[in-house]
Amino acid sequence: MSQRDYYEILGVDKNADENAIKKAYRKLAMKNHPDRNPDDKAAADRFREATEAYEVLSDKEKRGLYDQYGHAGLGAQGGFGSGGFQGSHAYQDFGDLFGDVFGNMFGGGGGGGQQVNRGADLRYDLELTLEEAAAGKEVELNIPKHGHCDTCNGSGARPGTNPVPCGTCGGHGQVQMQQGFFAVRQTCPTCHGSGKKIESPCVSCGGTGRKRVTKNLKIKVPAGVYHGAQVRVSGEGEVGEHGGPAGDLYVVVSLKPHAIFERDGADLHCDMPITFPQAVLGTEIDAPTLSGKVKIRIPAGTEAGRVFRLRGKGVPDVRSKHTGDLYVRVNIAVPKKLSKVQREALEKFAEATGDEVYPERSSFLGKVKNFLDDLANEVK
What we know:
By secondary structure, the chain is α+β, with helices and mostly antiparallel strands. Helices cover 28% and strands 25% of the residues. The chain has nine helices and 15 strands. Strand 10 and strand 11 form a beta hairpin. Helix 2 crosses helix 5. The radius of gyration is 39 Å and the shape is elongated.
């Protein structure tokens, strides 16, 4: 038997009531239980010590003796050191406590009632175009899944008969099992928590209460939905066995690659090729948007890579409903094939111009010359 003060072990004062003692023990037991700390000997020792303290302080008679005589007063009461619980009150209280604390750990529901198994969630992959995602769309889906059997209305029993209480658990869905010096509850292995036994199974579903169906659904996809977004449809997953509730359907959106635009949140980006004369002389071009073409004025002397911003020409943000922008980046298209006349005209243009018409090029060439001159002087 531990010689540490039991009140100190549980972290309560000597005037603590029964609820405070039980609450303190639940906290320590949950933290140090061997099933949660399988390789921690110190935790196992703390668990045994806390359990010993609770077994004494939760029993009015033992607590009175302990308060008056300390550990010596428990020698005749046969505490933990003499082989386990003494008295039905302590055993019953301890079993209830561990059913509450560790019911879920061992598969039980914690409350001693029947466990109704929820059906599985389902996933449906929905591929949309950028235009569909930007505008929003109502889509019609055909979902193959398990639905309630219409012959037995989901009960699993042959029409005209009813399920009977499970003989193993008495209809509770859980059984109490002795594990060492305490008792725990866990899901009944016979009825798997339903608390029922079907003696005359439905011939349509074999007693499961469900069968394969195809459900037709109309789903509203919100405007601005993004790649990877999930639309949750409550209660449209698989139904549970024996009348259990249905899981949920998750529609996962993916966007097809677009021939022109790339999406970044609510913004769109595209590259627009223009000719050398257009960049030099300036012009107006038609730029594409999701709602049609718009005019962009290209100033004279526009360089490759310049970006033009078109406000409000992106896609709606599905959360804020704010519409993003379209960013058009211009690139200089270089002709790959020239006729004889075109080549001669281009050669005449090159002869008629010098580096002075290209200020960026002149500046760069000047920097290169200075760098090479400095390098040559260092070598000398």
